[in-house]
Amino acid sequence: MRNTKAFKEAVAQTLAELARRGVTLAPATVEDTIERQITTVAERLRIHVRSAWRYFDASVTADRLSQSVASYEESSSEKGVGQAPMPPIDNPELALVLAGVPDSLAQTGGDLYAVIINVAVNAWMAGHIHGEDGCTGCDGSRGPAGHDWEARMRTITELQPNITKDRDVWTRAVNDAGYAVTRR
Predict the structure, then answer these.
(1) Each residue of 4-34: pLDDT tens digit?
(2) I need a surface site. Which of 15, 42, 64, 115 has the fewest CB within 10 A?
(3) CA–CA dist 11, 24 (Å, integer)
């Protein structure tokens, strides 16, 4: 279905309608929604998929997607859900995680997916450890710094260069690993 002219036109029209409404969604989200709609119409009416296109209306689809986005934003704000907090850009743990990227690139042979997984897991663990600082059941499990977050940050700071102040350090490390990030 996705390779048909009708599908591609429906996606383009729906994205244009969403833009008129000031709503931005990933094209893949719109594609998935349209595919589900057309498949459902075809199944319920017991007709061929190509015949279901006569029931498609890009403005109605855009309206529903806009309402869905607005409803999600409203329900999230009511519950106090918002953007996840980012650590300060000069956070030593963040610098440590980012400093491991060049080594990870070299170890994986440039496998960007593996590098992203490595960064995500290390960042998650750093947040997990930070969240357990008050856990009395974890006493003695973190080495000499123990549960003293400030002491752990000082130790980490001494181990790694401050890549936020000197981004060239990180770029040189990536280049030394044999890689470069360039825009296509």
Answers:
(1) 999 999 999 999 999 999 998 888 899 999 9
(2) 64
(3) 13
